[in-house]
Amino acid sequence: MTNIIMEVKQITKNIGKRPIIHESSFQLEQGKIYGFIGPNGAGKTTVMRIMTGLIQPTSGEVRIDSYSVKTQRQQAIARVGAIIESPVFFEYMTGRQVLRNLSRLHPTIKSNQREEHIEKLLTTVGLEKRGDDKVRTYSLGMKQRLGIAQSMLGSPKLLLLDEPSNGLDPIGMRELRDIIFKLRESENLAFFISSHLLDELQQMCDELIIIREGSIILKGPKEDIVKEGQRLEDAFLELVQ
Ligand SMILES: Nc1ncnc2c1ncn2[C@@H]1O[C@H](COP(=O)(O)OP(=O)(O)OP(=O)(O)O)[C@@H](O)[C@H]1O
């Protein structure tokens, strides 16, 4: 049995006549945390939007759990959760109401299991005691964690997080990191995380994928890319400068 959860096969993306992503391929395995890094404008968000079917590649294809994002969209997308831009919520609702409303969009959640599912997710992200408070009273870290709970509603096998630590204080960052580790452990989830906060990413990820000017220039285990005792930031700067 394969443990490949996503295959990105020779994708390219042109916007107008301008090539934004040059032919790029990589695979993601279950239970691993991938750090996706590159300078501003390198194409990270574009690749993540292609991975989640928000936009189509000009050529190439993406498969999630063997389902094509293009031709088997429903099955493919059901297996991935994503926070591509900061999660936006109706602030006048409680965290629980937000999850309850969004859960109705997931046909796999049976109505008699909805409340139990939501309670479990609130507990997973450490919001079980604040679930009945309005979102407007939440800190940024709590909103980010509610975003993780939201992206977990459909019980995905892979979570894509775009800049999840942005704006978080050290406590918020640690809470987020602990949740990511916990979910990897309990659900064998894979994570694909884009971030400019390289010290933080270095602590979290197992593998790195580095993009520059629309091309993947390096991918592999963190230990192969960052020497022992070296900071990811220094390894990264050596590679892209
Ligand atoms: N809709 C669009 N129309 C025109 N150009 C675009 C569009 N979307 C992205 N681009 C261009 O594609 C390139 C890659 O952008 P993208 O947002 O994917 O980079 P990024 O690596 O996520 O950058 P950052 O780290 O700054 O968020 C940039 O040069 C950007 O200007």
UniProtKB/TrEMBL annotation:
InterPro entries: AAA+_ATPase, ABC_transporter-like_ATP-bd, ABC_transporter-like_CS, P-loop_NTPase
PROSITE patterns: ABC_TRANSPORTER_1 (PS00211), ABC_TRANSPORTER_2 (PS50893)
Pfam entry (one): ABC_tran
GO MF annotation: an example: ATP hydrolysis activity
Keywords: ATP-binding, Nucleotide-binding, Transport
Domain ABC transporter, residue spans: 6-238
PANTHER family: ABC TRANSPORTER, ATP-BINDING PROTEIN (PTHR43335)
Family: Belongs to the ABC transporter superfamily.
Protein name listed in UniProt: ABC transporter ATP-binding protein
Taxonomic lineage from the root: Bacteria, Bacillati, Bacillota, Bacilli, Bacillales
